[in-house]
Amino acid sequence: MRAALELAALGYRVFPCLLNKAPACPRGFKDAVADPDAASQLFRQYPSELIGVATGSGSGIDVLDLDPDNGSDAWLEQHRHRLPATRTHRTRSGGLHLLFLHREGVRNTAGRIASGVDTRGQGGYIVWWPAAGLAVSHPEDLAQWPGWLLETLLPKPVVRPVPVETVVSGAGYAAAALQRAEALVKNAPEGTRHDQLNYQTWSLARFIPKGELSAGEIISVMTSAARHAGLDDKEIIRTVAQAVEAGQVRT
């Protein structure tokens, strides 16, 4: 109970799990809470031996789950040097849970990276094995996902080519391109929003040297569209500024 309340106070969404790792509460990780008072009530209502922690945006973490019984040791030996130092839990089966900051688009996978190498992200959970007395490495670290792993985990962005319009140049075409880019960013599926914002802004920047669109106009429209899509301001400002600059330099 004390460990569950401490985790809830740190912002982790917790819920009770049985010794077989199955949820003790009716809706599983959907019952998870990050409030100590609510956690106390939940764990008293459903007594359990283990603590589950929901992964994904709710707790702010994703997990790389390594299972040596299914072949993860060979993969880890090959890629250990490419993995950043991050909080790592030893699991009951002798495997490892490597914790990373949640990245939008990371979900649960089984064997996508390699045999015995799974992920827990949005819509998943892990057992918090340190509360059961198992070892923790790098307890103070929580790294970003390595880019080379994200290339495997994140869905590939669908970038539709801009169709050839009847009007192939001029302010009217530029305005239509701006409107279309705004809609594509606003409605981009989860996991493709950043890439769509970058590509569409870069594409629009070609109109700036011709005077058909201004940099300020593009920045304003694309920033608003990205906010509508759910991206955070820091990411939006950096991406839009870099794409506008890069899009004006074309070979």
Automatic annotation (TrEMBL):
Record's SUPFAM superfamilies? Prim-pol domain
Q: Which CDD domains match?
A: Prim_Pol (cd04859)
Instruction: Provide an example Pfam family for this protein.
Output: Prim-Pol
Q: Which InterPro entries match?
A: DNA_primase/pol_bifunc_N (IPR015330)
Looking at the record, the residues that make up the DNA primase/polymerase bifunctional N-terminal domain are 4-149
Write the protein's name: Bifunctional DNA primase/polymerase
Q: What organism is this sequence from?
A: Lichenicoccus roseus
